[in-house]
Write a structure and sequence with these properties.
By secondary structure, the protein is mostly helical. The chain is built from twelve helices and no strands.
Length: about 200
Amino acid sequence: MTEDEWLDRNDPYPRQLAVVQDFASVRKMRLMASVLTRIGQAQPQHDEAKRCDDLIEALADARRTWEEIAVELESRPGNWRFTQILFPPDDRRSVAMALRKLVAMYPIAPKPFIIDLMHEVIGNPFWPVVFSSKWRTSTAVAIAQGMYESRDFGAMPILADALQDAGCDSDDVLDHCRDPERVHVRGCWVVDLVLGKE
């Protein structure tokens, strides 16, 4: 895949998912799954998804272990198939395959949204940003941490100002924060860089 194809919001997203498998960490793929699960909760046919999004995030951020979550899910009748999709073993291939299945299950999420989600979490794999530790000021970290914990990313432009004040001159970083059309989620590549998350 070329950079132009990656940036094309009309490109077939299975090809972009292949790039996700190559470049995204297991944590980032799980956070993408959490976003899609949250969307799917509104659909009656996916009632088994309820509350799974928080469990996926807890697993992604190592706040819960796979074993702890497995015990909790055993008490939920009728969702064994969904459990197998959302909580595969912690290897990259299994999680990537689970993400593909989840995308296929949720046609309610339009293709451009899924592609935007992948771009939000990974950034541009063809031009990865070299993030200077000098940009990771206490102000920038506090803003990023607050957004991550609350899932309210309205302060992204303020984060851009804080990073710029710290000497950040990366157009990719600053434009990502200031783009009013962009939807941000946990796993945002800029927020993760500020917080030192993989």
